[in-house]
Amino acid sequence: MIDGQESTARETNDQQHEISVKVRIRRVLRLRFSNGPRSDALSGTFALYSLLRQHVNFTGKTMPVPVTRLASDANLKFHSKKSSLQPRMLKFLEGSVIAQAVITYLVLIGTCMVMGDGALTPSISVLSAVQGIQSRSSRITQGHVVLLCAIILVFLFLYQRYGTSKVSFSFSPIMLVWFVLIASIGLYNMIKYYPPVLKAISPHYIYIFFAKNKRAGWEQLGTVVLCITGAEAMFADLGHFNKKSIQMAYSCLVYPSLILAYAGQAAFLIKNPSKLSTTFYSSIPEPLFWPMFIVATLSAVVASQALISASFSIIRQSIALGCFPRVTMNHTSKKYEGQGGPEIGQAYGVAVIWVMLITTHLITVVMVIIWQINIALAGSFYAAYTVLEGLFTISLLYKIAQGGWVPFVITAFFLIITLSWTYGRSKKNEYETNNLMDSQEFIKTVAMSNRVPGICIFCTDLMKGIPPIVRHYVQHMGCLRELMVFVTVRYLSVISVLHEERFLFDRLEAFGVYRCIVQYGYMDNQNMEDDEYVVSIIASLKEIAQNADEVAMMDSALANGLTFIFGRVILKMSDNHNCFKRFIINNLYRFLQKNFRSNLSSLKIAPSKTLQIGIQYEI
């Protein structure tokens, strides 16, 4: 067993094979928050799920993301009040595999919808900014607008590859100018056209509006969602700024500017109802039209770039927690990591409100289990926001046929990948857990094998036990290196792991055989050279060496070269299972295995140092 405490004294030789060597860790594994700016942003659903995973032991064998707990994990629960009283909801959640699965699948759905949101944001933002150019001339058609949008988006994505740091310096000035301009123009329109328009802030006008418009008002409620879709950007910006600065910026700049802008447009429409389709640009004074057009387009690019970076970041975090197959993530900056109009608008609104609704469910669970807020208060929060967001959700249902189906198609695409991957992983882990080499078999296998000079780094997903592929390897190779290390890369639901706490080691019963768990948070940089990786492992192993002979063996092995062994497992589901499950494992999961990266692909390993061992598991 591996933990972070001092090793106890060995009193008898009979007990020696039962007591693991404890690793000396100076500090308990914990979060390390960077003081510098970061562009990594968790989606609300994924952030909440990450928090739950720190506090709730998800133990179900059929879980999409299997959880293995170590003794050193106990102190990861830094967010709670460390109360000795466990809430009933916590006990229920830890004891209910169904509840754990429901939460996990809700998170996967919400995360996939956020990815769909990221796919739609560049189109809706740029199109909204550019479409106003039609108000300048009747000769400018929708086709011209679409062409201009396409050109801007192509340049945006071409520039995106050069990194967030190349363009981020201009974000704040552009947004500041944007808010000052829309507030000033809104105030000008209010004074010029209808100063009493600010009465609309009074809540009782909500009742008057729906009483007068009835069904038409209900359908327009869904359009209001587009006025609040930018709210999620505030949570994304928590990666850049602290909470107080965002609160101050929103309260003193963003909210007042939006109120003045919308009130000014309403005042303009009272006197110019025929300009409804081009309200924003038609309400701009003539001398400010082109400056405003440029600023609006630049603001749309800023919003698009932020969501593009956030989408990449979300995928990276999904990979870190095992919810998405491994893909290549090219970070272009050492400082920053990741950073048809009406129809797109309908789709965008549907995506956002569903994500909000899922987030409300998850945050209620977090409030009760982690923050230990009074159940009545948490229930009131849940009821209020579920009713409010539910009303928006229902009002948007009629827009599904008008383009609102798009986010569901995008979500379905990502869900097929995510669920196929996580289901295949769960079946693979289940098979390996049930077919581990027991201790006596492994000792006998090592004793009967020839030991040759050098180091063997055997990469495995298991943190406990010897995987069955080792049996397959020894049967065909007939020898083992003098130093053998089973390495497992473990991704924790924390931001970062301290460098000196990166490795956890355990000495297995056979001489010269060790287990190493390499721990990463979901924001850690994992790019390491193979030699650097092995030197770090050997240096840490020497700290737990029992005598000089063991240290000499390690130095000798390091001098005689190393081999990284990767197991390539092919799952084949037998005919005993239904055709749907067989299709997922035999086709979808196998396709993902072939076309996505391996577990230790972040290491820069020379091909001459790798050996791949293939085996087929029939499940």
How would you portray this structure in words?
With 619 residues, the protein is an alpha/beta fold. It has 2 domains: 322 residues; 184 residues, no CATH class. It has 19 helices and 8 strands. Strands 3-4-2-1-6-8 form a 6-stranded mixed sheet, sandwiched between helices. Strands 5-7 form a two-stranded parallel ribbon. Helix 16 links the parallel strand 1 and strand 2. Helix 6 runs parallel beside helix 9 and helix 12 runs antiparallel to helix 13. 33% of the residues are buried. It holds the Pfam family K_trans. It is found in: Membrane. Belongs to the HAK/KUP transporter (TC 2.A.72.3) family. It is a multi-pass membrane protein.
Shape: elongated
| Uncertain parts | 1-42, 76-85, 332-339, 341-347
Distance between the termini: 29 Å
How does the helix and strand content classify structurally? alpha/beta
Q: What is the beta-strand fraction?
A: 5-15%
Major sheet size, sense and barrel closure: 6 strands, mixed
Radius of gyration: 29 Å
Number of discrete domains:
2
The largest sheet has its strands arranged as 3-4-2-1-6-8
Number of strands: 8
User: Roughly what percent helix?
Assistant: 40-55%
Individual helix count: 19
Order of helices and strands: HHHHHHHHHHHHHHHEHEEEEHHEHEE
Report the mean per-residue pLDDT as an integer. 75
